[in-house]
Amino acid sequence: MKTTPLAILCFLVASVLGAVGQFFYKAGADRTRGTIQSYLLNSRILLGAGCYIAVMVLFVAAFRQKASPSALYPLYATTFIWAALIEHALYGRTISIANVAGMGLLVGGMYLLGRTT
Predict the structure, then answer these.
(1) Kind and range of the H or E element at 4?
(2) How many Å apart are CA 104 and CA 109, to the nearest integer?
(3) Distance (Å) of CA 48 to CA 19, 30, 43, 75
(4) Which end of the chain is more exposed for a tag (fewer CB within 10 A), N or C?
């Protein structure tokens, strides 16, 4: 099954939105007071949920292209790379050599998985 460029793009955008959603969840969690209302009416948590809804819409759009899940799901693993880059940009977190090596292994694994499908 041939995976289209549009399906690949959908999953790459979904991976960025997944990472952004994680940071909205964290920012929202930092502002809660432990009450249900502080969770349900928290704009940052709602934005995080919106990101994850967009991720699911992009997944559906990609699969409508008759794309191969085994080729696409490894691309979603780049969420971890985007999260590290966002954390570095927003919070100044250092990206260590070990982090870069892990990112390299992720990219290498994605290449190998995509190559066999």
Answers:
(1) none
(2) 8
(3) 9, 13, 9, 20
(4) N
* Pick from 74, 72, 64: nearest CA to 9: 72
Residues 86-95: tens digit of each pLDDT: 999 988 999 9
pLDDT of the residue at 52: 97
Distances from the Cα of 103 to the Cαs of 19, 76, 96, 99, in angstroms? 15, 13, 11, 6
Helix (H) or strand (E) holding 85: helix 79-91
Query: Which pLDDT tens digit goes with each residue over 45-96?
Result: 999 999 999 999 999 999 998 888 888 888 888 898 999 999 999 889 999 9
Q: Which of 78, 88, 65, 86 is nearest to 108 (CA)?
A: 78
How many helical (H) and strand (E) elements, i.e. helices and strands, does the chain have? 6, 0
Amino acid making up residue 113: L
Structural domain boundaries of the chain? 5-115
